[in-house]
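Deliverable D4.2, example record:
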Amino acid sequence: SCVQLGFYKDDFIKFFVRKNVRRSPLINRGYFARVTAVRAIMKAFFEKNGGPSECQVFCLGGGFDTTFFHMSTNGYRPKLYVEVDFERVTQEKTAIIEDTPELQAAACVDSNSRVDKGAAPSGSIFF
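Output generated by the structure prediction step:
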């Protein structure tokens, strides 16, 4: 609902959230604040440390967060991006990515690369 109301732009959330849930304005402002802050902090970190190709990001409790896809398609793809969550959550997220060409393109997944779940410990996704 936050994206649909125009609080921020997210071209990828539609692949992970199937139904529109109406939330209170306070919750929407919280999502907006979190997304805006995380994106700004990551950009600043990348710029201070030699650019995204020199940085690694470790995301705890990533859930169905789309930060990796947003950053990757806006010129901020890190050297390594790891998401850790409950195994059930990462399995579902990986399945959605594997079934969605737009997400595969954003993650630069093709016949030569993939979302690495085989070498990853249970409950994690490596991009």
